[in-house]
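Appendix B. One record, verbatim.
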Amino acid sequence: MGAPPPFSPLPREIVLGIAIILWVLFSATPWAFSSSLQRLYVANEGSDSISVIDLTNLGTVAEVPTGSRPHYVNVDPLGRYFYVTVLFTKESDDLVQVFDVKTNALLTSVVTGHQPAHVVPDHTGERLYVSNEAASTLSVISVPEFKVVETVKLKGRGPHGLVITPDGRFVLTPNSRSGDVSVVDLARHQVDRIQLPSGAKPMAMGITSDGKFAYVTDVGLNQVHKIDVAQKAVLASLAVGKRPMQAPVHPTRPFLYIPCMESAAVYKVDLDHWRVEKVIPVGQGPHGIAYRADGRYAYVTLSGEKPKGRVAVIDTETDTVQTTFPVDDAPYGIAVLFGKNQGW
C-alpha cells in the first residue's frame, strides 16, 4: 500500500468564506441558537413603565419601571438592549434609558436634548439616533459606550418619528412644529429640508426597503405624503383618518398600516396604487405599530382604552383584529424584538 497523499490545505478564499458564514450565523443573530425569545415591548406613558409581552401566548412577562413619561421604545437589532425615551420635567433630565433584553435591568441612562421623542438604532446596532422635539436637534449616541458623540442642529422645528435609510446614510425627521422634513446626510454632515403642504403637522415616517421612497403622516391635514428621497421632493398626498401616527412600511409587502388616533382605526394604504384599501376598526386611540418579522401580525397600541390601555393584534393576511390584550396606562410606543419597528 502506498503512502497517503500529502495534506492540501483549502484555499484561503474558501476558508475566509466559511468563517464569514459562521460569524453571520452565530454572531449576527445571537438569540437564534441560544433562546427562543419572542418579545414585544410597550411604552406606557401614563404609568411610567414598559410592558414586556411574550408573543407566544400574549402574556405579560414583566412590568419594567422607567423614568417619567416613557413615550417611545425600540430594540437593538442584535437583540442586546431595548431603548426608552423618557420626558422628565427638567431639560437636564431628558433621557434615553438602556435596558438589558435578557434581564430587563436598567443598564444606563443617556442625557439627550430637550424632550426626546423617538430613538432608532442604525442597522448595525452601533449608533442610536434620537429626535429631540423641543431642542430641534438629533442626538447621535455610540453603542455600547452609550455616549453622545454628535448633536445635529436640524432645519425645522419639533422633530418626532424619524427614519433611517436602509444604507444608513440618511436620517429623515418629520418636524411637527414647522411643517417640513429634515434630511440629514450622515456622511457629509449636511442637513437639507423638504417643505410639506401648508398646514402640515408631520408626526412619523416610514421608508421602503430600497430607500427610494419615504412616507410621512400628517396630523394637521389628516394625510400621508409620499417623498422621493433622492430628489427630496413630495410626490403625492393621500387622505387617511384623523390624527394619523406611526407609519413603518410592512416588512414584506407594499402597504402602510397607519393607526389614526381619532378614527379608532388603522388605515391600510396600498403603496403601489396609492389608495386606502381598507379601514380596520381597532379600538380607542391607536398610536404605535410594530410588525412581527415575517409581517403576518401587526401590533397596535390603543392609548385611549379604559381603565387601562390595550394592544390590538391585526392579522395582515385577513386584515382583521384577532384579539386585544391589556397593558398599562396610555401606551404609545411599541417594538418587536427582531421585528419591523418604527424608524426602519
